[in-house]
Amino acid sequence: MAWTSADTRGARSVTDVVGGSDALSVTAAVGAVGACVKKLGPMLVTGEVTGFRGPNARSGHCYFEVKDDSSVMSVKVWKGIYAKSGVALKDGLQLEMWGSFDVYSGNGELSFIAKRISVAGEGPLQRQVEALRAKLKAEGLADPARKRPIPRFCTRVAVIGSISGEVIDDVKRTLLRRNKLVEIQVVGARIQGVGAPEDIIRALGIAAAARPDAILLVRGGGSYEELMTFSDESLCRAVAACPVPVITGIGHEPDWPIVDDVSDRRASTPTGAAESVAPALDEIVGSINTRRERLSRAMDVILEQHARAIGQQGLLMQRSMSSRISHESLRVESLASRRCLSDPMTIVSDRETSLLQVEQRLLDALPRSLERKGRELDSLAGRLSGVGPRIVRPYEARVGSLAATLDALSPLKVLGRGYAIARDSDGHVVTNASALAPGDAVSVRLGEGSFEASVTGVSK
C-alpha cells in the first residue's frame, strides 16, 4: 500500500505492518487502520439510536450510537446534514443512515460518518419502555396528586447510588457545600446489569427504614441500555410505594427513564437532585431576612391601621362621653331644682295640708249627706207603709182558709168530742189492745190535758 497524506505520516502499508517485525508508532498504527477502513467505501446502515447527546451546544454536530441485538457503533452527523434531514433524533429511534466509517487520528476512535439519515421506526426496546410508561401512567403512578410532599429544608438525606463511582462524592460535596447541617446516609447499590433493579429495591428499603426526610436515587449518566435499569417495572413500583419521598437524578437532561415519572421529584442531574433538597445557607439567611423585612413592613402597616382605628374610636368615645355627661348634667340640675330636694319638709307639710283639706271637706259633706239620706228614708218608709198592707192582703185570706182546714183536720178537734189517744212507754200510739199487757204503763191524751195510767186488764 502506498503512503497516504498526513493521516498516515510515518506509517507503512497494512501488509508491511502485519508481516514486518518493526514496532509502529501510535500515529502510524492509527493511520494504517484509517486507510484500511476507508477502502470499505460508503454503505447503508440501520439501527436503533442510543446515547443521543446532541446537537452539540457549540458546534451543532450530533454524536450518538446505534445498536442492534449484538453490536453498538459510534455515529457522527454534522450540523448541516442534520439540519437538512428533518429528523428529530432521540433515543430509541430506528434510523437508516448512508455514510462511511472513519478513524479519528486524535484518539483512534472508529465512527460512522452519516451523509444522509432518515427514520426507519422505533426500536423494540424503546417500544417496550413506552408501553410500560403508558401502563404505569394509566394506573396513576405518575399522577402528581399521588406524589408525596418534600420538605423545603431537609435535615436528613439518604443517597442511593454506586459506591465505586464519583456520583456519590459529588452529591455529598454539593450537600456539604450548600448546608453543612444536613445529615447524609449513603446506601450503595448496583445501578446496571443483571440484578441491579433488585439491589436498588433493597437499598430503598434500607434507606426508608432510617426515616430520612428524602431519598436521592442517583446515577452519573450512561447509554440508553445502561439506563434501562431505571425503567424496570418492579423498581418503578417500589419507588412509587416508598414511604419516604424519592428524588431521582439520573444521567443528564435528555435522559428520562420511567422511574423519573413515578418519583416524587425529578432532577436532571445528581447535583441538581442534591441542590433541590439542600438550599444554600446564604439563600436561607437571605430568605429569612427578606421575610423578616416583609413581616416588619406588614406589622408596621397593621400597627398604623390599628393606630388610626384606635384614634377614630377614641374620638368617637370622647364625643359620646361628652354628650352623655352633658345629658346627665342637665338631668341632675333638673332634679336639684325640685322642691322636694331643696326643702324636704315640704313633702310632709304638703301632705298635712292635703289631709286637713280632705278632713274639712268630709266634715262639711257629712251633715248634708245624713240629711239627704234621712229624707230618702222617710220617703221609703211612707212608700213601704202604703205598699205593705196591699202586699199582705191577698195572703191573709189564704192563710185564714188554710187555718180553718187545719183546724177541721186537727186530732185535737176529735179529742174535744170525748176521744183520747193512748201511747205506750216508748211513745208509740196504741191502736190495738193486744199490744198491751196488764201492768204496762200508758200515757193518755184527752181533749184538754193528759194523764198517766197502768193497764190492769186487756180485752181483745
Provide structural commentary.
This protein has helices at residues 14-19, 26-38, 79-85, 124-138, 167-178, 196-209, 233-241, 259-262, 270-277, 281-336, 339-342, 345-409, 411-415, and strands at residues 43-50, 62-67, 72-77, 93-104, 109-122, 156-161, 183-188, 214-219, 246-250, 265-267, 421-423, 441-445, 450-454. It is 47% helix and 18% strand. Strands 1-2-3-5-4 form a 5-stranded mixed barrel. The protein has a 5-stranded parallel beta sheet with strand order 7-6-8-9-10, with helices on both faces. Strands 11-12-13 form a 3-stranded antiparallel beta sheet, with no helix packed on it. α6 packs parallel to α7. α5 links the parallel β6 (156-161) and β7 (183-188).
Tertiary shape:
elongated
Which residues sit in consecutive blocks of at least 5 with pLDDT less than 50? 1-12
Number of strands: 13
Number of helices: 13
Strand content: 15-25%
User: Mind describing the biggest β-sheet?
Assistant: 5 strands, mixed, barrel
The pLDDT mean sits at 84
String of helices and strands: HHEEEHEEHEHEHEHEHEHHHHHEEE
- Structural class by SSE content: alpha/beta
The residue fraction in helices comes out at 40-55%
Termini separation (Å)? 201 Å
Evaluate the radius of gyration. 69 Å
Give me the side-by-side strand order of the main sheet.
1-2-3-5-4
